[in-house]
Amino acid sequence: MDKLAVLQNLGLDKIEAEVYLSLLTLGGSRASDVAKKTGIKRTTVYPILKKMASAGLLNVYFRKNRRYFYAQ
After folding, report:
1. Could you say which of 5, 17, 39, 45 would form a disulfide bridge with 12 (CB–CB 3.0 to 4.6 Å)?
2. Predicted TM-score (pTM) of this structure
3. For residues 36 and 12, what is the distance between their CA atoms, to the nearest angstrom?
4. What tens digit of pLDDT does each residue of 14-48 get?
């Protein structure tokens, strides 16, 4: 079973699973970097990251007034 399928079995939809996997490979990164890695529009990535952060799957840190997301 691949990683994407495992995350989907845990309750994430396909886009959320792709975003989470990209954060795992990138480490802490901005939403624009996640959008480039996944090929999903940045305006779509922001609400997904916000939703996942409120669910406790991601941490959000600010560096030099920029928001960085880290997978838990």
Report:
1. 17
2. 0.90
3. 20
4. 999 999 999 999 988 999 999 999 999 999 999 99
Residue with tokens 């954060």: 23
Instruction: Let me know: does 52 contact 18? Beta carbons within 8 Å.
Output: no
What does the block give as tokens for 63?
């560096």
| DSSP state at residue 10 | T
Hey, what are 1's tokens?
């079973």
Residue 15: CB partners within 8 Å, gap ≥ 6? 38, 40, 44, 48
Q: What is the CA radius of gyration of the chain?
A: 11
Helix orientation angle between 31-38 and 14-26, rounded to the nearest 10 degrees:
110
